[in-house]
Amino acid sequence: MTVHQVTSVTDRPGAAYAGRAQATGRRRISMTARRHRAFYLFTSPWILGFLLLTVTPMAYALWLSFTTFDGISPNWRYVGLGNYRELLSDPVTWDALGRAGLFAVTSVPLSIVAGLALAVLVNRPLKARGLFRTLLYLPAVVPPVGAGIAFKLLFDQNSGAANGALTFFGIDAVGWLADPYARYVLLMAVLWGAGNVMIISLAGLQDVPRELHEAARIDGASAWRTFRSITVPLLSPVLLFQTVTGMIASVQTIMPLLLAPLGDTSGITTIPQPNYLYMMHVFAQYFALGRYGYASALLWVLFVLILIATGLIFKFASGAVFYNVDPEAKK
């Protein structure tokens, strides 16, 4: 056997191993590429929707906020930060923003407390518990337009059921949809949809370990002490989620417009002063006055304020929220 033949024989195992490793590497790269393609394929509807329906309108609104565009006329001009300087010196804007903040501070805690109380109620072993859960959650699935029309009919001064009940007991009719009662009707309309908060709180209650409640009962803790010291801390992530989403939804509510009495086509001039919130001011600038640039600046200011408020909520609530799993733990 020649030297060349010996070298070829001794190199064959190494060459075969290198060939198998190279093939395995190609298969591994191919599997990784296929997983990446599958990921982007399945997420592409959301990505396209986010880019086309969220990023693009926001960018367009940001551009409009630097102009005097009115939605119709081609005679618009670029004003730079003029719209932002105007809104900073507009007392109507600040009053509407203050009412929106007050409404959020009032309605969000009431909604969370009402939803949590209903969740605790329907979490007990009651008869027809499923029926009660369905009936309490049903208002949450009613569209806001339908809910607004229903409350407007219910609290109508002339033919509403609320004033009908008052007159039955000899009490004079009340202008529920006018100042100063309009704010209370708005709060009732918000609390009427507390079933959404209830269903989320109910899911959190069912995730609380029963062993902790049994241990507290053996130690002699009362039901209120168990709820305050065990249930509420373990529900704190759910309560934080509801606080943030409730705050965002409350400052963007359109219910005052739906509850407004009959008036002009925009409905803005008939909204009672206590219900003239920030989004009503934005709606007035867009559709009643045709100031698209100024209204877009109002929306971008609201977006920045929501980001700041959300960051502050997370910052100050971080020490009071308890997670079963560390949210910052690396997998």
Topology, please?
Layout lengths: L2 H62 L17 H7 L2 H32 L6 H9 L6 H11 L6 H8 L13 H11 L2 H12 L3 H9 L4 H28 L4 H5 L18 H11 L3 H26 L14
Tag the structure with descriptive keywords:
disordered N terminus; 70% helix; single chain; 13 helices; 331 residues; mainly alpha; globular
Description of the structure:
By secondary structure, the chain is mainly α. Helix content is about 70%, strand content about 0%. It has 13 helices and no strands. The chain has helices at about 5-65, 80-90, 90-120, 130-135, 145-155, 160-170, 180-190, 195-205, 210-220, 225-250, 255-260, 280-290, 290-315. Helix 3 (about 90-120) crosses helix 8 (about 195-205), helix 3 packs antiparallel against helix 10 and helix 9 packs antiparallel against helix 10 (about 225-250). The chain is globular.
